[in-house]
Amino acid sequence: MDALIQLGMVSEQLPSEAQNSATSASEAKDYFVSRDGVKFAGTHLIIDLWDATNLADPEHIDDVLREAAVATGATILHGHFHHFGPNSGVSGVLVLAESHVSIHTWPERDYAALDIFVCGECNPYLAIPVLKKGFQPGRVQLAEHKRGLVG
């Protein structure tokens, strides 16, 4: 609580010009997408990979998802992957400046569930060939959702 009060006091002590320029800079950039007459926050792909390979190797998964994120045009901020043990699944996430990529794997079923949500100029569909190359699925199920749909 004291940190919040101190933080509040610091912002109150800023000259009004500094407060105004900080507000103007944050309000000036709109990261929503306008495409085909529709405005929205970003594209969220839900991807299921069936009959896939390399689903119990957290380093391989990390490498593939990083390559996929870069292919979309995104900026990777942080990644964390948890391995549930030998021959077991992996859950992980890449936090992107433009949102996230996440995965949960079931190697015993040769199945992986992924989310790719990106905003701005990023194209999540550019990740699909990277995922196919990295996991060699026999079947891919894909659903798209436009997040933050304005109209």
From TrEMBL:
Organismal lineage: Bacteria, Pseudomonadati, Pseudomonadota, Alphaproteobacteria, Acetobacterales
Protein name per Swiss-Prot or TrEMBL: S-adenosylmethionine decarboxylase proenzyme
Keyword hit for Hydrolase: no
Keywords: Autocatalytic cleavage, Decarboxylase, Lyase, Polyamine biosynthesis, Pyruvate, S-adenosyl-L-methionine, Schiff base, Spermidine biosynthesis, Zymogen
Family membership: Belongs to the prokaryotic AdoMetDC family. Type 1 subfamily.
Reactions performed catalytically: S-adenosyl-L-methionine + H(+) = S-adenosyl 3-(methylsulfanyl)propylamine + CO2
Record carries keyword S-adenosyl-L-methionine: yes
Quaternary structure note: Heterotetramer of two alpha and two beta chains arranged as a dimer of alpha/beta heterodimers.
Residues modified as Pyruvic acid (Ser): S99
